[in-house]
Specification:
Elements lengths: L6 E5 L8 H16 L3 E4 L5 H14 L4 E6 L3 H4 L1 H10 L7 E3 L4 H5 L4 H9 L13 E3 L6 E5 L2 H13 L6 E4 L4 H15 L6 E5 L6 H12 L14 E3 L3 H26 L1
Parallel strand pairs: 1-2, 1-7, 2-3, 3-6, 7-8, 8-9
Antiparallel strand pairs: 4-5, 5-6
Helix pairs in contact: 1-2, 6-7
Length: 268
């Protein structure tokens, strides 16, 4: 069985922000992913920081390196060009829409066929017909994008793509708004509950995340939040885009060694 690619989910804003430093950080992160053969999972948008990181990585690594996940209700907001084309040309969209093939996970290199089945299984709760459960927008400068029914389905599928990815897979949040914070803390909560074991960090451009990091530290001090194991931070705090891949890899290796240590102790 081949090892699935390392996949990092990026949570970030659909707006660029007022400072060029945010866009520069998104571009630098994509360049780092390319250098380390990392695949991207993201929210599927074409605007703001979302669009910048996806478009940059597609230019460098190709479309197969990018997997977006977007709710159908958000296409008009986060993929405005596609929505405009659809309304104007009625079926002559820039991106052709096709149903996902049964073996889509294997063909996309997302995971093994078994983990791909788990990803599809995780979407069974969506209130949509089976043949409308997910569609794939092909041949886009922003990579390949799966359409799902709602925000919760987006977060769950992105988590499963990372959970089932190769060594060093994980999550990183760039600057963003309420939606970015929601996505970030969803995976933090899932980590605390043991749903996944991947590292989570923020790319803290210009101190953007300082307030939330300070709140987490206080919540830990006052025993409302717990750190699960020595050195295993709730959120890693990275100042440079180049450090994200290394931090997530180190986190993953630490978890592996921890699991191996538990196995050894249990065998004594």
């Amino acid at each position: 069985m081949s090892t699935p690619p390392t996949r990092i989910a990026v949570f970030c804003g659909s707006a660029p922000g007022p400072s060029k430093t945010h866009t520069d950080a998104a571009r630098a992160l994509a360049e780092s992913f390319h250098q380390h053969s990392i695949h991207l999972a993201y929210g599927g948008g074409t605007s703001g920081l979302m669009g910048e990181v996806a478009r940059t990585l597609v230019k460098l690594s190709g479309k197969d390196a990018v997997m977006g996940v977007i709710p159908s209700s958000h296409i008009g907001v986060e993929r405005p060009a596609d929505d405009k084309d659809e309304r104007k040309e009625k079926g002559k969209e820039k991106d052709k829409v096709k149903k996902l093939p049964r073996n889509w996970a294997r063909r996309m290199g997302l995971a093994s066929s078994s983990s791909g089945a788990r990803a599809n299984k995780g979407m069974k709760g969506d209130k949509v017909k089976r043949d409308e459960k997910a569609k794939l927008l092909l041949d886009s400068e922003y990579g390949r994008v799966t359409i799902v029914s709602d925000l919760q389905a987006r977060k769950k599928l992105m988590m499963e793509l990372v959970r089932d990815g190769g060594p060093g897979s994980g999550f990183v949040a760039l600057s963003g708004g309420i939606g970015t914070v929601d996505e970030l803390f969803e995976v933090v909560s899932w980590s605390q509950m043991g749903v996944h074991a991947r590292g989570i960090c923020v790319l803290n451009v210009g101190g953007f995340w300082d307030g939330i990091l300070a709140w987490i530290e206080r919540a830990i001090e006052e025993k409302f939040v717990r750190e699960r194991g020595e050195g295993r931070k709730v959120l890693g705090n990275l100042k440079e885009a180049g450090g994200v891949v290394a931090w997530l890899k180190a986190y993953d290796e630490g978890r592996r060694k921890e699991r191996e240590g538990k196995v050894i102790k249990a065998g004594r």
